[in-house]
Amino acid sequence: MKTTRRALLVAMALAGPALAQTPAPEPVAEPPLPRVAIVTTAGTMVVEVETKRAPITAANFLRYVDQKRLDGVNFYRVVKVAPEFGFVQFGPHTDAKRNLPPIKHEPTTQTGLSHIDGTLSIARLGVGTARGEFTISVGDQRRALDAAPGVPADGQGYAAFARIVEGRDVLVKILDTAVDPAKASNGAFKGEMPAAPVKVITARRMVR
Known about the structure:
By secondary structure, the chain is an alpha+beta fold. Helices cover 23% and strands 25% of the residues. It is built from five helices and eight strands, in the order αββαββαββαβαβ. It has helices at residues 2-20, 55-66, 108-111, 142-145, 168-175, and strands at 35-40, 43-49, 74-82, 85-91, 119-122, 134-138, 159-166, 200-205. An eight-stranded antiparallel β-sheet has the order 3-4-6-5-7-2-1-8, with helices on one face. The longest helix has 19 residues, at 2-20. The model has no long low-confidence stretch (mean pLDDT 90).
């Protein structure tokens, strides 16, 4: 009996170091966030899309990209408050056939994203009406576009979902586009519409 117990203890002692040397499994790396190259007549911008933090809004943008619905659209609105401060807007605008169904609103209070410099968000009227009109903030636009009481009237703000990681100089060029003070769209955006708008040539996912 003692011999058997001694042999068991020896076996356990020999096995201990072997077990201790077994390496821990490597953590599984999460896939990188998707990136999209927006090629325009003013140059190329690369945006990183927050599919984890704003999954609904991000997926909607990627559908417009994958279905090539943004190819050929204009940056039809330029709101320049000061040098390198304001926002620009692009999308189907009056070309209704390019639009996809509206999506559920994801406020910044839910996603944790904010309208800092280079942030992409989706424009809307009422909550849940956003389709394919996208804004890009130039400078810190949190006070104007983040969800907060009175911004806009319902306090839910715009849904942020991506940010520029390359090509900010192109964004500034677009913001600096000269506007036609008399131009408007069905009475809206007067003084904010470029005389010769920058055009999106292509918007494509990048291989990472």
